């Protein structure tokens, strides 16, 4: 689906986001943008240790980077129709490492019209190049009554 149109949306319709190639440089740039310099994202030696029952074996991408990719996908899809991205909840399921390529996607779960607006609920996920889901969640978008028809 290329752009949103509330009237024609139905459960099961899909939204695809752009692929993102994760590199040490992209992780470092996110550190700079977020001011999060946690050694999880920068220090391979630090990441050789165990974290409880988990060993990542090297640096990992910020989980919030998944959030940003999902937000971009939703905004690119909904904004041309005058819709507004209102809520996003995600869970990080697997670490993302340099060399991975990840891609967000969504599927319309439900839509509802209320007295004041029109709403779309979207299941969202980010998968890596192996088809593993690294993040998943749910988003809500509002299509105000005066939104463009798309």
UniProtKB/TrEMBL annotation:
One of the GO BP terms on file: fatty acid biosynthetic process
Pfam families attached to this UniProt entry: MaoC_dehydratas
Entry coiled-coil feature ranges: none
Residues in MaoC-like domain copies: 15-125
GO molecular-function term, one example from the UniProt record: (3R)-hydroxyacyl-[acyl-carrier-protein] dehydratase activity
Highest rank taxon of the organism: Bacteria
SUPFAM superfamilies: Thioesterase/thiol ester dehydrase-isomerase (SSF54637)
This protein's name: Acyl dehydratase
Organism whose genome encodes this protein: Bradyrhizobium brasilense
């Amino acid at each position: 689906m290329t752009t949103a149109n509330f009237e024609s949306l139905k459960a099961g319709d899909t939204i695809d986001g752009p692929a993102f190639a994760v590199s040490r440089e992209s992780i470092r740039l996110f550190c700079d943008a977020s001011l999060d310099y946690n050694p999880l994202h920068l220090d391979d030696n630090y990441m050789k240790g165990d974290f409880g029952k988990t060993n990542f074996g090297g640096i990992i991408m910020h989980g919030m980077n998944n959030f940003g990719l999902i937000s971009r996908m939703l905004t690119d899809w909904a904004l041309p129709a005058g819709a507004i991205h209102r809520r996003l909840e995600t869970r990080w399921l697997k670490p993302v490492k340099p060399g991975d390529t990840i891609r967000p996607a969504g599927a319309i779960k439900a839509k509802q019209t209320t007295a004041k607006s029109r709403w779309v609920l979207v299941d969202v996920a980010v998968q890596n190049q192996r088809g593993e889901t690294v993040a998943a969640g749910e988003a809500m978008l509002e299509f105000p009554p005066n939104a463009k028809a798309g």
